[in-house]
Amino acid sequence: MVQELSTYDALAALDFQIAMGADMAIGEEPLDRYALSAAAAEQKAKAPAQYPLRASPPPVPVKADPISDARAMASSASSLEALEAALAAFEHCELKHGARSLVFCDGRPQARVMIIGEAPGRDEDIQGRPFVGRAGQLLDRMLAAIGLSREATDAESAVYITNILPWRPPQNRDPKPEEIAMLKPFVERHVELVSPDLLVLMGNISCQAMLGRRGITRLRGEWSEVLGLPALPMFHPAYLLRNPSAKREAWADLLELKARLKRGEAP
Fold first, then answer.
1. Are 105 and 162 in contact (CB under 8 A)?
2. Distance between CA atoms of residues 257 and 235, nearest Å
3. What distance lies between CA 87 and its chain's CA centroid?
4. What dihedral angle (degrees, nearest 10) is formed by the CA atoms of 210, 214, 215, 220?
C-alpha cells in the first residue's frame, strides 16, 4: 500500500531534488532526446525562412593606385590636347584642388628643344603658362642669347616648355616624392608626343623626376639620356636670381646647348 505524501513532504522532496541539481521534471514515459534533436534539425532545414542567414560583411573597398591610373590615362592620350584633358581629369593629386590653373605648356610643339621645369609659381598659376614670372623673364633672355625663343615659329629657333608638376604647390614648396611619382607618367607621355631632339632639365626637381638624381651643381653641364633623348641639366633661372655668381656656369651650358643643336648629334 502506497502512502500518500503530505503537501509538506512533497515540497521537501522537491527542494531536495533541486538541491541535488535536478532542474526538469521527468514524465512517466521515457523520452528520446536525440530523436527530438534530429526532428528539430529536419524541421529547420525544411523551413530556412524561419532562420534568416547572418548578413555578410560589406566588401572592403579597393584602394586606388594613383601611379597606375596616371599611366593608363597618359598612355591613352593620342594628342597634346587629349593629354591636357587627361591631366585635368586626374583626381589623385591634392595640388589640383588648391591651384587656380592647370599650367600645361608654352612655346611651339614642333621645336627641337623641350625644356622641363619644376612647378608653377604664383605668376604661372595666375596666367596658366610656365615661366612667366621673374624667372621666366630671365629664361627668355638666356634663350635669346643663343638665338632661341618660345615665340619663334620655326622649329630651329623655337623652344617648347612644360613642368614636372602642372599645379602650383602651396607657398611654392618643393614637390613631394609621391606627387612627382604620380605625375611623371604624364611628363613622359608629353615628351613622347612632342618628340623633340633635345631635352633641357631645369633644376633639381626635374633631374630627380627624369634622372632619379639630385645635386644640380654636380649634374649641370653633363649630358645624360632620358627616354632615348639627350638631356642637359641646367640651373633653374630662379636659382640664378638667388645666386648671380652661377650665371657663368649657366652661360657655359647655354653655349653647349647651342653647339649640340648646331652639330645635330644623336644621343
1. yes
2. 13
3. 12
4. 0
Which neighbouring-strand residues pair with 114?
A: 160, 199
Residue 131 C-alpha from the chain's centroid: 24
**Contact criterion met (CB below 8 Å) for 117 and 163:** yes
Q: In a structure prediction context, what are the per-residue pLDDT tens digits for the chain, which is 267 residues long?
A: 556 657 767 677 767 777 776 666 666 666 666 666 666 667 766 665 555 556 667 766 666 799 999 999 999 999 999 999 999 999 999 999 999 999 999 999 999 999 999 999 999 999 999 999 999 999 999 999 999 999 999 999 999 999 999 999 999 999 999 999 999 999 999 999 999 999 999 999 999 999 999 999 999 999 999 999 999 999 999 999 999 999 999 999 999 999 999 987 544
Q: Are 195 and 148 a contacting pair, CB within 8 Å?
A: no
Which pTM was predicted?
A: 0.76
Q: Which of 158, 85, 155, 164 is nearest to 130 (CA)?
A: 164
